[in-house]
């Protein structure tokens, strides 16, 4: 088959598709990855045919901007150029698979007469009374509130993008849709996360296939020399990193982390990341550029992070306890709740209440709780036996 993988967004959105693309290539399929131009610089594309497509900056990463306002601006700027690029990139394809910050894949698939499946990195996108809608900060709410919140979320999503998407569809000779959310994200979805962490809810009536998180193969070679020396110089450190988001400005967050690590009496590897964390290296703290989680996480004592789906999955697979400090964007609050509910980590303060003493207390708790460590290690043993990429490739190769 000729398969086009469409992934826009952060590293966490794109990495699973690189892993899947490599598996599909090895199975004999023709594969093309379509994403924003920066993806070619961020990723080891492992021989994939890469086609850049238009995408403007995504303003919703800033919590001060209401997400539906940011989404409307994004759709206004991105929809038409993104559709033009996808129509070119996907011409001649047999199947489109999509995830991330795309808005027009359903229009592209319909215009080209190509089959489309969505890939969800979090089952929170699926209709259910058992979880709140995306980006909602609450978890322990009654089912009626979850249902109402989901209806509001989908209605706001569709209203935010309807004008730009209707114009795009008319330009492509298509009729506008009332529910672009379902067309883009709920088209015979593949759920690419591990059921032990986040199962498909029992009350979800939508047909979906859950395969597990799509991990990349560990790259050849080790860690950078300075990081390797730091790891060897003392007990396993905690990893602290916030991916494409951060709960506070870089300078404030860097100082807070340093104070917390000192107060907790541990060592830390701090990922500079998109948050721009930076400082002087010493015997207790090492600032590192992004490195493969699958290589680093097995060598740390715990993982402190922002609650992205990829980091949560990588920490779970490594068998390490977690502390999640989510800015409550997208699915981050959901992953925090899943980790806490399963006894794989501790409840950390929300960003607006984050202080060095509170973070230090969370570090001492997660490092000192043997039962959390035992549960995390046991789950890691299970997840390392799973080859989700192979399962997904077999599903798709069989016509799924």
SSE topology:
Elements: E1 2-8, H1 11-26, E2 30-35, H2 39-42, E3 49-52, H3 67-89, E4 95-100, H4 105-112, E5 115-120, H5 143-171, H6 180-185, E6 190-191, E7 209-210, H7 225-232, E8 238-240, H8 250-264, E9 268-271, E10 285-288, H9 293-296, E11 302-305, H10 309-318, E12 322-324, H11 332-341, E13 345-346, H12 356-368, H13 370-383, H14 388-397
Parallel strand pairs: 1-2, 1-4, 2-3, 4-5, 5-6, 6-7, 8-9, 8-11, 9-10, 11-12, 12-13
Keywords:
alpha/beta, 400 residues, 13 strands, single chain
Written overview of the protein:
This protein has 400 residues and is of the alpha/beta class. Strands 3-2-1-4-5-6-7 form a 7-stranded parallel β-sheet, with helices on both faces. Strands 10-9-8-11-12-13 form a 6-stranded parallel β-sheet, sandwiched between helices. Strand 4, helix 4 (105-112) and strand 5 (115-120) form a beta-alpha-beta unit. The longest helix is centred in the middle third of the chain and has 29 residues, at 143-171. It is 42% helix and 13% strand. The model has no long low-confidence stretch (mean pLDDT 90). Helix 3 crosses helix 5 (143-171). The protein has helices at 11-26, 39-42, 67-89, 105-112, 143-171, 180-185, 225-232, 250-264, 293-296, 309-318, 332-341, 356-368, 370-383, 388-397; strands at 2-8, 30-35, 49-52, 95-100, 115-120, 190-191, 209-210, 238-240, 268-271, 285-288, 302-305, 322-324, 345-346.
